[in-house]
């Protein structure tokens, strides 16, 4: 609205006057001269920025009233039409000026190197010897370089070799240039230490030989048959002799921890646990807690026996031993803590140990050693294909693994039971029954009394089963309930009551170890 009011900076409004020749004029001519609603357009001065701004708006308004689109089919021959044609020509001209010229390219004249240049190139080029390579300018023959008739031999040759997969020590040493006798002697001397594992690194020094072309005698050979033992074979006056150097070992267990994340297995591997350790950890946890109960935000914690060579060697310098402790931590508080205890390698929670110590009869022994592969609840049957109640849990175990009675009881059924195949049912009293399916073989018969932990049969895949596993059921008052609603304790849980304090003290000791991981 800058043009509407009186403005002292603006000169008296005046008409644009006669159109200048050219586009603007043509368009202007095409438009009605006096539009009733169009205000008189002032021509502002450009002296300062306000006027500049005003001028820009004036240009904007002028352009808004004009069009650059002219229909050349209409009013042929008129001024407006001629202007449109001229505009089209003006558009086309730059495009035509950019028209490419497609003339053939002329190749540069071919210049072959002269003899001198060719000699220079050959001296610097890397070419096969058979093609005349002189292997570099600096080594090309000159007057001051003469060819020797015989080359002096190196006194010794130092080599490093790594034993390959499916390779043989003798073959490897002979390939390195050792005399067959020496290679066989090395094999014989190291035989009591066991065959070296693939990937074992050998440092070998070969001594001078009497005749060129003969295999060289062994001077020194050293390697590590174990991470904590270094062996050196040296040639002395009396032949080869072997010396063992035990390497001091640190046996502080590793204490690893980290966030479970999307994969507990991967997280534990990332924290530095080896695959066997992770496997043992998962098995220990699985005995007391279904994996489904572990949340991605939980932390895992494990302590594993570890031996580490103290000489700073990087390869083959340590090895993990038994898993000692497995735990799950939620919100900073331990959710599950299990620790290896006793000589049978079983893991216990303090509660399970206490329960076992008090001979608490409400705790059941695990029916079989294995991992739970299917839980109680509605699921699609793997063979029948429709959804129904899975009235027990499936525990995968090797064919023929012993199946134990989870508690004292009487055998009320032992025989074929439809999809359960060979099936045993035990009555434990107190309204508790247990069922065991898919057995390969029975160890007890109907009417027999069985004790907790007694073997009642063996794992198989009879009935509707995709593989060897135990289908284990628990009944309360005749109704199937989730067997995991009553926790198992591992077998042979007969621990001296006085051990509980020692157990807790040991757990504190393990958890006080410095942690590794994030
Ligand atoms: Zn089942």
List keywords for this structure.
disordered N terminus, alpha+beta, 518 residues, binds zinc ion, ten-stranded antiparallel β-sheet, seven-stranded mixed β-sheet, flat
The main pleated sheet reads as: 10 strands, antiparallel
Residue ranges: pLDDT <50 for 5 or more in a row? 1-35, 357-362
Helix count? Answer: 10
Bound molecules: zinc ion
The gross shape turns out to be flat
Return Rg in Å. 46 Å
Number of strands: 26
- How much strand? 25-35%
What distance lies between the first and last C-alpha atoms, to the nearest angstrom?
67 Å
* Helical content band: 10-25%
Provide the residue-averaged pLDDT.
79
Helix/sheet category: alpha+beta
How are the SSEs placed, and which strands pair?
Blueprint: H1 23-30, H2 49-64, H3 79-97, H4 115-124, E1 157-162, H5 169-175, H6 180-190, E2 201-206, E3 218-226, E4 229-236, E5 239-246, E6 249-250, E7 254-259, H7 264-271, H8 275-286, E8 299-309, E9 318-330, E10 333-340, E11 347-348, H9 350-357, E12 364-365, E13 371-374, E14 377-380, E15 387-390, E16 392-396, E17 402-404, E18 409-416, E19 422-429, E20 432-442, E21 449-450, E22 455-459, E23 469-476, E24 479-481, E25 488-489, H10 499-511, E26 515-516
Parallel strand pairs: 7-26, 12-25
Antiparallel strand pairs: 1-2, 2-3, 3-4, 4-5, 6-8, 7-8, 8-9, 9-10, 10-11, 13-16, 14-15, 16-23, 17-22, 18-19, 18-21, 19-20, 20-22, 20-23, 23-24
Helix pairs in contact: 1-3, 5-6
The protein binds zinc ion.
Zinc ion binds next to strand 16.
